[in-house]
Amino acid sequence: MEHGCNKRLDVQSYVNSPPDRALSNKPTDPVLRIRSERHRESGSISELGNLLSICMGLPKKELKKFSVNPMDYWGFIRGFMSSVDHYTDDFANRLLYLIQYCDGEALDVIKGCTVLEPESGYNKAISILQRRFGQPYVIAPCYIGSMTEGCIIKQDDARGLTDLAEKMKMCANSL
Q: Bias regions of kind Basic and acidic residues — which residues (predicted)?
């Protein structure tokens, strides 16, 4: 048991040590050094390296600002939860990010939440947004309006009929 702990400490000290430039002329990337440990030691360090490699290869998340369109509410709130909420436990930061990603009427209705304690302010802001923009009775008329207004679709207009069908599916999924 003690031998296994020493082995883990050796790996950690190796990962944290500066590279030996005499061994290689290649530039040393810390992520590559951690990933190379996977072949020497299985465990949390190699998993961390793999995770870092995956994350660094992903494109940057782009979260659109939410302003007033209830049809965009659920997409925004799910994106916010996966991009911000899951990555910080600090309610003050969550609230600041929520305010940063809201605009127009959405910002106006939640900016007063900053005077509350961070946790209650954040929870209140989420509740206000959900009540104002995320209710089915608020979203449904917006979708109905988007489907009934605009050009008249003729029976031989395949593109127009396909677009209408997609709008109807989005409406059903949102409600």
A: 1-10
Task: For the chain, give percent helix, strand, coil, nearest 5.
Answer: 70, 0, 30
pTM of the predicted model over 0.70: no
Q: How far apart are CA 103 and CA 155, in angstroms?
A: 40
Other Cβ atoms less than 10 A from the Cβ of 87: the count is: 11
The SS3 of residue 60 is: coil
What string of pLDDT tens digits covers the 175 residues of the chain? 445 444 445 555 554 555 554 444 444 444 444 445 444 455 577 777 777 777 777 777 788 999 989 999 999 999 999 989 888 899 999 999 999 999 999 999 999 999 999 999 999 999 999 999 999 889 888 888 888 887 788 888 899 889 888 888 887 887 7
C-beta separation of 170 from 163 below 8 A:
no
Q: How far apart are CA 67 and CA 133, in angstroms?
A: 10
DSSP string, 15-27: HHSPP-TTT-SSP
Give the DSSP letter of residue 23. Answer: T
Q: Where are the domains of the chain?
A: 2-57, 70-134, 137-174
CA dist 10 and 22 (Å) reads 20
